[in-house]
Write a structure and sequence with these properties.
Elements (H helix, E strand, L loop, with lengths): L16 E8 L2 E8 L23 H23 L4 H4 L17 E5 L6 H19 L4 E6 L9 E6 L2 H54 L10 H4 L4 H12 L4 H19 L19 E4 L8 E3 L5 H5 L1 E2 L17 E2 L2 H4 L4 E4 L7 H13 L1 E2 L22 E2 L3 E6 L9 H10 L1 E4 L3 E3 L2 H18 L6 H15 L4 E3 L3 H16 L7 H11 L3 H12 L11 E2 L2 E9 L6 E14 L12 E5 L6 H18 L7 E8 L9 H14 L3 E2 L2 E3 L2 E2 L9 E2 L4 H11 L3 E5 H7 L8 E5 L2 H8 L14
Parallel strand pairs: 3-13, 3-14, 7-10, 10-13, 18-23, 20-21, 23-26, 26-27
Antiparallel strand pairs: 1-2, 4-5, 4-6, 8-9, 11-12, 15-16, 17-22, 18-19, 19-21, 24-25
Helix pairs in contact: 1-3, 4-6, 4-7, 13-15, 14-15, 17-18, 18-21
Length: 750
């Protein structure tokens, strides 16, 4: 890596002033940007449109727009059929969407992690909103209604954007009026009953006082006999008899009325049955539930990555009371899924290969039918509940599926779903790199400015931007390309900015970027490799100095399965070659050819082992498996695989056959091929930049790589060690072997 300003020309981004047109806060803004003289990214205009955030994926973006045009054409034809009329009224039967909805389009984005697949999906959604407004495409709200005839099948209605909330508010007002009337009625009944009860109690009390007064006044009965004589002057008997006669007429009715008036008061405090709460605080009510709200006016975009059945396709909550009228009504327990929320919009699923087979089949049904009833789908419903019997009428789910995955996803996606994507959609490869042009270098500045704004970071100086561009070139593994895997670069940008902030700088400088690259932003494989070098360096048999017969250093890469990045590694390889005729035996000794320390069952290394035998046979006329006892060992390598091991083994055997020691300060990589016209060619391999950096870290003086890799990928100025291109096996031998002969193995003549 270059130090200082060497190699970073100040016309890196070209000369001249460019007028940049951006959309900022809903307005079109034009800013003049001097590429030849800008000092930092401060003031660089950032577009709010996510389409302009997509960098280096023009082909994928064009294919996405083509799918959008097909999608809009489909929706315009659908609107002409007025497919939504059957859903506009609650009591109308719902149609089968298969009769009017054609399948597709679908879009599958395949690419490495960090290439912008999710960003592309969001950009398409943003574009879709604009296209909908231009073409008058309508969005809809969805309501779930109570079914009086069949409560376990809530009814569904759809309404144009905004109408759903109006209908909901209208029904809520009706419900409020009904509740108010009920409350006022209960209050009136309460007052009437309380008044009548108090009156009857007062009347009974009056009659008792009147009986006492009559007794004291010597009153007479109807027969003319005084009450004292009639009861033998026993007032208690007289009073009890009169009380018993009055209780059924006054005290019992009055007390009952007062009791029931108090009960009605308590019941009205709860709001009556209509106010009893169920799941999520829902009330017993005939008011519909708004399950899909498109009131924002934007085309729906739902990121369903990692969602399971209940989130994808909706579900019905179980009733905790399970008491019929005291529980939550069925239509209030309905929850829409991603496919319903994304209706007439984009449903985005990353890592589509991880979709369960059962969910994949259900998704396939949604894509073909354009509708799906909502029923219980959660696996954690807690056993048999009342929700298991609930299934709504079909809910519209006309979605534009945009899915993404790595290149290995094709073989892991459900075959039926993959067949529909092939037949009715497009499969687009995301670019890992873009041409190394001035225009694309300027896009790197745009990318840096976007991340600075996104994370509220310090602006980047011009030389810091140049170093980020150079790192993008190195990561592309091409001389004339820039990487479009921006996610790893985001980590570098953030770390560089934090380092600058810690130093109280006003802007991020190149030294901060270099420190982030060299000290902080390392993959776990690279950290393990450095730990291996520092902690186990003396134990490992990697010493890049001197010459040795029967030992060579090869280069390999380790792939990070999560980030997709590669880390280089150095392998110590040893070999022993003994002619079987030189060993005294009474019985003939059978030759063998063994390679140890390799990853078992790996095809690449197996092919290389076979090709090495053929190449040695072609070059020297020796069969290392029949005439010799040959053993090659990848010492302390913990399982090696890859085609680049072939040239390492071949050079090692050539060293033993010719008796020439191998320079230990030279590391090699390349794929060996069978010779044609007397020349054994070495072809290109992957991860060359990472391999060279590993050799550099171990202290090697020279690295020999295939000539095609050198021309295609390598700029020697990026490294502090010599990088030598070689086209043939003879070229490799000239760089690796020392002319001093220590051992000569006689060749067999055929």
């Amino acid at each position: 890596m270059l130090d200082g300003g060497e190699g970073l020309s100040f016309d890196h981004f070209g000369q001249g002033v460019e007028t940049l047109t951006r959309s900022v806060q809903g307005r079109i803004v034009k800013v003049r940007w001097d590429w030849g003289n800008f000092k930092t990214t401060e003031g660089y205009p950032i577009d709010e449109s996510m389409i302009n955030w997509v960098i280096g994926q023009d082909q994928a973006l064009n294919e996405g727009f083509l799918c959008l045009n097909e999608w809009v054409h489909k929706l315009k034809n659908l609107e002409q059929t007025q497919w939504y009329t059957s859903w506009s009224k609650v009591d109308q039967p719902k149609p089968s969407a298969k009769t009017v909805i054609s399948p597709g389009p679908y879009l599958l984005l395949l690419g490495d992690p960090g290439t912008g697949k999710s960003l592309l999906g969001r950009a398409l959604s943003e574009k879709l909103t604009q296209v909908y407004k231009e073409n008058g495409i309508k969005l809809f709200d969805v309501l779930s209604w109570k079914n009086d005839i069949l409560p376990s099948q809530p009814r569904i209605s759809i309404h144009t954007v905004g109408e759903g909330k109006k209908v909901l508010h209208t029904e809520q007002r009706k419900e409020l009026k009904r509740k108010l009337a009920t409350k006022v009625g209960l209050k009136a009944i309460q007052v009437l009953m309380l008044t009548l009860g108090v009156f009857l109690l007062a009347l009974g009390l009056y009659f008792m006082i009147d009986a006492w007064t009559t007794w004291n006044a010597g009153g007479v009965s109807i027969g003319g006999t005084s009450w004292q004589e009639l009861y033998n002057n026993n007032f208690s008997a007289y009073f009890v008899d009169r009380f018993i006669n009055l209780v059924p007429l006054t005290f019992i009715p009055g007390g009952s009325l007062i009791f029931f008036s108090v009960f009605i008061w308590w019941f009205s405090r709860l709001g009556g049955l209509a106010n009893l709460r169920g799941v999520g605080g829902a009330q017993q009510s005939d008011v519909p539930k708004l399950i899909v709200d498109n009131g924002s006016g934007n085309a729906p975009f739902v990121d369903a990555t990692g969602h399971r059945s209940a989130q994808l396709f909706g579900s019905v909550a179980w009733d905790p009371f399970q008491t019929g009228g005291l529980g939550t009504p069925e239509h209030q327990r309905v929850t829409s899924g991603d496919v319903h929320v994304a209706s007439l919009g984009i449903l985005y699923i990353d890592e589509i290969k991880n979709l369960d087979p059962e969910d994949a089949v259900t998704l396939l049904t949604v894509l073909e039918d354009g509708q799906l009833p909502i029923t219980l789908r959660s696996r954690w419903h807690g056993g048999g509940t009342s929700a298991m019997a609930v299934s709504t009428e079909p809910v519209p789910a006309i979605t534009f599926l945009v899915c993404a995955g790595n290149f290995d996803s094709i073989g892991q996606i459900h075959p039926a779903l993959m067949d529909r994507i092939y037949g009715y959609g497009k499969i687009v490869r995301m670019n890992n790199d873009m041409p190394n042009t001035i225009e694309n270098k300027r896009k790197y500045v745009q990318f840096i400015a976007q991340e600075v704004k996104r994370f509220n970071l310090l602006p980047f100086r011009r030389d810091a931007c140049m170093e980020i561009v150079e790192e993008g070139r190195r990561r592309s593994n091409k001389r004339d390309a820039l990487s479009t895997r921006f996610r790893p670069l985001i980590s570098i940008i953030k770390t560089s900015a934090v380092l600058a902030m810690n130093e109280k700088c006003n802007a991020v400088e190149r030294r901060h970027v270099l420190e982030a690259l060299n000290e902080h932003c390392k993959t776990i494989q690279k950290q393990l490799l450095e730990h291996q070098m520092h902690e186990r360096g003396e134990l490992l048999e990697i010493k890049p100095e001197g010459v040795t017969l029967g030992q060579i250093h090869g280069l390999a890469v380790i792939h990070d399965p999560y980030s997709g990045e590669m880390t280089g590694n150095v392998l110590g390889v040893k070999a022993q070659l003994v002619r079987k005729s030189e060993l005294p035996r009474d019985q003939p000794l059978k030759g063998y050819y063994k390679v140890t320390g390799v990853a078992k069952g790996q095809s690449f290394i197996s092919d290389s082992i076979a090709k090495v035998r053929s190449v040695i046979l072609q070059k020297y006329g020796l069969d290392i498996a029949q005439d010799y006892l040959t053993h090659i060992d990848f010492a302390q390598s913990y399982g090696v695989d890859g085609p680049s091991a072939g040239v390492t083994m071949t050079i090692l055997l050539c060293s033993l056959i010719e008796g020439k020691p191998v320079r230990q300060d030279v590391a090699v990589t390349g794929e060996i091929n069978l010779g044609v016209n007397g020349s054994i060619q070495i072809t290109a391999v992957g991860g060359v930049h990472e391999k060279i950096k590993a050799a550099e870290a171990w202290g090697f003086k020279k690295v020999v790589i295939p000539q095609k890799n050198y021309r295609h990928s390598i700029d020697a100025r990026d490294y502090t060690i010599d990088v030598v291109p070689a086209a043939t096996l003879d070229d490799y031998l000239k760089e690796c072997l020392v002319e001093q002969q220590l051992l000569k193995v006689p060749a067999r003549k055929y």
